[in-house]
């Protein structure tokens, strides 16, 4: 019955528009944002210096107080790579904070905690993922 109401060329346009709307509404095709957090969980009253960047974006160097975090959001792609350099007193380390080639597509937020023994990747419940820990290097 709808064939009688819609001319032939318009039918193709209506079907194409419906297809595009269905594809755009599907969750896997929507652009989503991810957020990286680098938290200062050091003992004492030590400020953490954090400098993170990607090939295209520089988050900048910032001093992060105890209990606070540096965080930024972005639209992830497979090739997205953010790396960070951390410094506290006489210790330094660098690590990949977000690697799109290794990231789980379901992982929207990435949390790192700087602690006295290094930086730790955390699950959403705050527990450490043992295989993702990087230790501090002492300058001398």
TrEMBL record:
Belongs to the plant self-incompatibility (S1) protein family. This is S-protein homolog. It is found in: Secreted. Residues 1-25 form the signal peptide. Pfam families: Self-incomp_S1. GO terms for biological process: rejection of self pollen. Keywords: Secreted, Self-incompatibility, Signal. It comes from Linum trigynum. One of its GO terms (cellular component) is extracellular region. PANTHER family: PLANT SELF-INCOMPATIBILITY PROTEIN S1 FAMILY (PTHR31232:SF155), PTHR31232. Its main location: secreted.
């Amino acid at each position: 019955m709808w064939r009688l109401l819609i001319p032939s060329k318009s039918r193709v346009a209506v079907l194409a528009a419906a297809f595009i709307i269905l594809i755009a509404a599907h969750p896997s095709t929507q652009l989503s944002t991810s957020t990286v957090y680098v938290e200062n969980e050091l003992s004492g009253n030590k400020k953490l210096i954090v400098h993170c960047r990607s090939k295209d974006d520089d988050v900048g160097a910032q001093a992060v107080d105890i209990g606070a975090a540096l965080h930024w959001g972005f639209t992830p792609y497979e090739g997205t790579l953010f790396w960070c350099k951390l410094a506290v007193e006489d210790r330094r380390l660098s690590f990949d904070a977000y690697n799109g080639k290794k990231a789980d597509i379901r992982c929207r937020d990435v949390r790192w905690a700087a602690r006295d023994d290094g930086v730790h990747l955390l699950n959403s419940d705050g527990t450490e993922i043992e295989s993702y820990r990087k230790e501090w290097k002492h300058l001398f």
